[in-house]
Structure formats: C-alpha cells, structure tokens
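Quick check before the chapter quiz. The format below is the same one you will see on the exam, so make sure you can read both the input and the output lines.
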Amino acid sequence: FLKEQESTLKAAASQFNKILEIAIETQNHYHMYIDYDRLRFALVHITEFIAQHTTTQTIPMHCHDSIYEFIITFTFSTDAVTEEDLPYLFDPFYTTRSNVETFNLCIAQRIIMLHGGIITPALQKGKLSFRISLPQDKRST
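Here is the expected output.
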C-alpha cells in the first residue's frame, strides 16, 4: 500500500515545496484489511498538514512493523503547535493560537481509528511527531 501511495504522498508534500522522504524498514508482507481510498486520504492530509507547518525542507516518514502492528512515524520541526495545543490537535473546531486549522487532522484520525489504529502526537524541543499505529489483521469497520 505504501509503495503504491509514495508518489501521491510526495506530491502532497511538494505542494508546499517540501520533500517527503519515506523509509520502510521492513519488506515483509503485512496482512491488513484497509479501505485504500480512505487511508490514502488520511495519510495525504497528515502529510499536507506537516508540509504546511514544518520549518524544515525535508519531512521524514519512518515505517516499520512489529508482531502486532505497523507503525508510521512523522517527526518534524514546527513553531505553529505548542504543548498546550496537543490535547486539542484532533478537535475539528479547535484552531491553535498560530491559526493552524486542524479539521483535516480530525478526519484523518477518525479514518485511522476506523482501521483499528491510533495516531498519537508528541512534542519535544520544538519537534512534533505523529505516531500512527495500525493493527495487523484488523478489518476496517
């Protein structure tokens, strides 16, 4: 799925003159039941949010698997989101003090949740990370 979406995700980042670097650690086949269109939609909107608000030119996307889940991590520098914003980042009606709209992040989070996954934000020393965890063998609902 990620190999098929690589050009789409890179195009989403390039809209904002950013470069998405995708690193997939494993080449194992990972069996999941997903809605291709919706999961693509979620990843594109997360990529666009990051590309729009990162202070660096390159966006690293790191992917790896474990026995039970597939993990996608984005880590990027930003000054648009503060520690106080984190609990509300996926609230569709919340706008950060920097006027960062989070409506598309809310939709992306819901799609990930419908796939049995979770997206977790963390902020450390000006670097925001999104950790997306998708379970193995989960049928989307």
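If your answer matched, good. The chain has a mean pLDDT of 87.
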